[in-house]
Amino acid sequence: TVGHSNYHLNTTYLGDQQLSPTETFPTFIGDISNVGSLSAQILHLITERIRTKAVFQTQQAKFTTWQFDTEYRGDDYTATLTLGNPDLISESVIVVAHFLQSMTSQLVLGGELVYHRRAGEEGTIVTLAGKYTAQKWIATLNLGYGGAHASYYHRANDQIQVGVEFEANTRLQETSFAYGYQLTLPEANMIFKGFLDSKWCVGAVLEKKIPPLPVTVALGAFLNHWKHRFHCGFSIIVG
């Protein structure tokens, strides 16, 4: 079968206030497709401790997502408040509050509160979270009314990294896990990534840098054994 062709136009604006190699404010990111669907993000630094973000998405001429985030970073804690799709006319809103506190240099504890309201429905979910960071590994655990989520990441050496993820959903009575790894070959300028999950989905990505050009070629393949689906493709990254 042959699907419909589509294309996207992307644009990014970076301001002159750079806090780190990966943080620049203000930042504007936009993506529009050939059918008129728009995705946009705006990031702004109000003060040294307060950061804001706005996200907008449309499906052709209809707004589907409008979200506003505010984050406050203290000396040893972080607090975040998110408003998702607030609508005064239909009296619907999703409110998410996060709080993370550094107990020690390695242990972080916190929680999340999710409140949602729409016509004829209202509810609140509370989740507790913990993260422990060692020299070569990181472990996380989330416990809530809907279930539990745990992850473990280990850096064996400069070339090998592995990770495993486990999730149990008490409402759906389902459990799942996923395993992934990354192999870096610096002498060959190559990175190989692979994963396997409990739904028998297998995937692999091979990235190859082509010096001295600022070009990276990536080849990927994904196979779902249960649904008998196979996808493959390649990409060229310049920069």
From TrEMBL:
<keyword id="KW-0812">Transmembrane</keyword>
<dbReference type="Pfam" id="PF01459">
    <property type="entry name" value="Porin_3"/>
</dbReference>
<dbReference type="InterPro" id="IPR023614">
    <property type="entry name" value="Porin_dom_sf"/>
</dbReference>
<dbReference type="GO" id="GO:0008320">
    <property type="term" value="F:protein transmembrane transporter activity"/>
</dbReference>
<dbReference type="InterPro" id="IPR037930">
    <property type="entry name" value="Tom40"/>
</dbReference>
<dbReference type="GO" id="GO:0005741">
    <property type="term" value="C:mitochondrial outer membrane"/>
</dbReference>
<keyword id="KW-0496">Mitochondrion</keyword>
<comment type="similarity">
    <text>Belongs to the Tom40 family.</text>
</comment>
<dbReference type="GO" id="GO:0030150">
    <property type="term" value="P:protein import into mitochondrial matrix"/>
</dbReference>
<dbReference type="InterPro" id="IPR027246">
    <property type="entry name" value="Porin_Euk/Tom40"/>
</dbReference>
<keyword id="KW-0813">Transport</keyword>
<protein>
    <recommendedName>
        <fullName>Mitochondrial import receptor subunit TOM40B</fullName>
    </recommendedName>
</protein>
<keyword id="KW-0472">Membrane</keyword>
<keyword id="KW-1000">Mitochondrion outer membrane</keyword>
<keyword id="KW-0653">Protein transport</keyword>
<keyword id="KW-1134">Transmembrane beta strand</keyword>
